[in-house]
Each structure stands twice: as structure tokens, then as C-alpha cells.
Write a structure and sequence with these properties.
Layout (H helix, E strand, L loop, with lengths): L16 H12 L3 E8 L2 E6 H17 L6 E5 L4 H11 L4 E4 L6 H10 L2 E6 L4 H7 L8 E4 L9 E3 H13 L15 E7 L7 E6 H14 L5 E4 L6 H14 L2 E4 L6 H8 L3 E4 L1 H17 L3 H16 L5 H4 L1 H5 L7 E4 L13
Parallel strand pairs: 1-11, 3-4, 3-5, 5-6, 6-7, 10-11, 10-12, 12-13
Antiparallel strand pairs: 1-2, 8-9
Helix pairs in contact: 1-2, 1-8, 2-3, 2-6, 7-8
């Protein structure tokens, strides 16, 4: 039953992730889809039109390499290349296998074998580890380094693959672009420890992911900018932080390291954040630690009570009253979505 406190929002219906990308490319075209750091404080922006072009290039290259009806793994910190790899895989009717970036070499090897992968795309940070286990992975035909320069029959740089795909698209190769998606076919294998500690592959289809995306956006209105913090090899992080944002035309600012979370939040000035309770706990503690350090904890408590009193009267001055707190989040924060644990979160909503 529709809850009057939570109106259903209008959302374009999609049945698969290829429709997601095509719809966003047409609807938001030159709007910024992703922004991320490249060197120091310099950032790079990618439009929704460019996002589709990059996906088409990589997917076309995969097809030319014989990667059809194949399982392709991806591992690394949050990055634009990781995201393009995901879509280039699934929109070609291949199966993506996102691997936990904190796994040991042995566990990575076991996951690759168990999931029958024929290729793996990885950030350069994992280059040494991948080469150490390469000899134990006879089924892996291609090792693609997101930041590498090596190019031979087996180890290839991501840039080389993208360039190859771009050339093929320009030459008229459109098998990938015209590929039709079966929404019920297996498209992703997500490994989770479950209750026994032994990793199990959870099988998801295009329809699973598309339905979850549309359903979420019917109940939650997202805004202009999100900082992508949660690891995207998790389904919650990828669905909430990437799929929902693309479908809404939101700009996704990619955080690659927990060390730079605070800096990225201040600099990118997000309207929305997707978090798990642990992040919220740390942010909450940081606010109160700073208030105690500056001798303003009692003032903050009184201000919260005063703000709540005004809210009961229908007066909302929180953006003015708590401006110093909001400035620590870039000043534009509108929404925090928190999930992934069973903790009580009500105390974090008092500011």
C-alpha cells in the first residue's frame, strides 16, 4: 500500500542494464556522468554520451578478442575503468564477476577458477599478485591492466583494448552495439561469504539489477551529485552508488581511497551519500569529538533541542543552524542513504 509519507516517484522503466545506459546517454547526453581525480587536485569529467562510447569501445574489443558468452572478472579500487568494464561485459551478454579487492592471492585464484573466468581486468595495484598466480589459471586467456603499459598476447593494457575497440566501432563493427539482451539470463556472479565463511557465487540477472534500480528510485529521490565511497564489488554499493545514479542523471564523483574520503566530500560537495553504518558512526563521532575539543558540545546539544522544537512548529532552519556541520560535508548535503547492517540509526538523524 502506498504510504502518504513516501510518495512514489516517476521513474523510466528499464528491463536491463543496456537500456539503462542507452536511456541515460539519450536523456542526459552532455551532462557529467562521472568525475574523478587524475593527478593531485586535478579531476577528469566524463559525460553520459562519452560513457556509452567508452562502454561500446571496450565491449566491441571484448567481442573481437573472442570474449562472447564468457565470464570476465574485475578487481580494483573504485574507478571509472572498473565501471566501464562492468557495463562492457554485461551489455555484451557476458557475465561479470566482481572480486573483493581485499582478498588474498589464494582466494582470488579460487574465485577465478570457481567462476570459470576467461579474462580479468584489474587495477595496476594488483599487477604483481596477478602475475604470481597467472601460471595457475590456465583458463584465463587475457589479463588486462587498467593502468599498465605491457602488451603481448596475454597481458594487455586497458588503454590498448579501448583504442582497439574504438577503431573497430569506427570501421563499422556493431555486433556489440546491436547485441540484444535476455533480461533473465545470468549476468553477474557476486561472491559472498554468507553464514559459513565459504564464498558462494550469488547469481544475478539483468532483470534483478534493473528492477532493483527502478524500485529503489520510486521511493528515494536522488539529487545532483554523489560521492561514490562504498566498494562497488558489493551489490549495494554498485546498485545505490552507480546504477541508481546513472538512471537519475546524477553526477558520480569517484572516491578511490578511504584516506581521501573527507577531502573528496568537501571538494566534490555532494548532495547525496550512500553509506553503511560504520561510515555514519565515524562521521557522527567526528562531529562530537570536534565539538568537545572546541568546547561547544553543550551548545550543540542545546541547538539540536532548539532545532527540534522549531521542527515541531513546522519551521526548518537546520541548514542555517548547522551550517558549520554541513560545511564539513561540502555544504550541499541533502540525503544520506544507509544500508548493509542491522544497526539502529535513529541517533545519527538528530543533526
Amino acid at each position: 500500500m502506498k504510504n502518504s509519507n513516501y510518495p512514489l516517484y516517476e521513474v523510466d522503466n528499464i528491463s536491463n542494464l543496456k537500456e539503462l545506459i542507452e536511456n541515460a546517454s539519450l536523456k542526459y547526453s552532455n551532462k557529467t556522468a562521472f568525475e574523478y581525480r587524475i593527478k593531485g587536485n586535478k579531476t577528469k569529467k566524463v559525460s553520459y554520451r562519452e560513457l556509452k562510447e567508452h562502454i561500446d569501445s571496450l565491449g566491441t574489443a571484448f567481442y573481437s578478442m573472442g570474449l562472447k558468452d564468457s565470464h570476465i572478472a574485475v578487481i580494483g579500487e573504485n574507478s571509472y575503468e572498473w565501471i566501464v568494464t562492468y557495463f562492457a561485459t554485461v551489455n555484451g551478454s557476458n557475465v561479470i564477476v566482481p572480486i573483493d579487492k581485499d582478498l588474498s592471492a589464494q582466494d582470488i585464484k579460487n574465485t577465478l577458477i570457481d567462476s570459470n573466468c576467461r579474462a580479468i581486468v584489474y587495477s595496476h595495484k594488483y599487477s604483481k599478485m596477478i602475475k604470481e598466480i597467472e601460471g595457475q589459471l590456465p583458463e584465463i586467456k587475457y589479463f588486462i591492466d587498467m593502468d599498465g603499459e605491457e602488451d603481448n598476447n596475454k597481458f594487455i593494457s586497458y588503454e590498448t583494448v579501448i583504442e582497439k575497440g574504438t577503431e573497430l566501432v569506427l570501421q563499422g563493427h556493431n555486433d556489440f552495439i546491436k547485441n540484444e539482451i535476455d533480461p533473465n539470463k545470468l549476468t553477474a556472479i557476486i561472491y559472498t561469504s554468507g553464514t559459513t565463511g565459504v564464498s558462494k557465487g550469488v547469481m544475478l540477472s539483468h532483470e534483478n539489477l534493473a528492477t532493483n534500480t527502478v524500485g529503489t528510485l520510486r521511493y528515494a529521490k536522488v539529487h545532483e551529485t554523489v560521492v561514490l565511497i562504498l566498494p562497488i564489488h558489493h551489490t549495494f554499493g554498485f546498485t545505490a552508488g552507480v546504477l541508481c545514479m546513472i538512471h537519475s542523471g546524477t553526477k558520480v564523483c569517484i572516491n578511490k581511497s578511504l584516506k581521501s574520503v573527507s577531502k573528496d566530500i568537501v571538494n566534490f560537495k555532494p548532495t547525496d551519500l550512500m553509506l553503511v553504518p560504520l561510515f555514519l558512526e565515524k562521521m557522527y563521532k567526528k562531529i562530537w569529538d570536534r565539538a568537545n575539543k572546541n568546547g561547544k558540545a553543550n551548545l550543540l546539544r542545546k541547538t539540536i533541542k532548539f532545532s527540534n522544537f522549531l521542527l515541531n512548529l513546522g519551521i526548518d532552519l537546520r541548514r542555517k543552524i548547522f551550517k558549520n556541520v554541513l560545511d564539513g560535508f561540502g555544504g550541499n548535503l541533502e540525503l544520506i542513504v544507509c544500508g548493509g547492517a542491522t544497526k539502529q540509526l535513529s541517533k545519527y538523524a538528530e543533526i
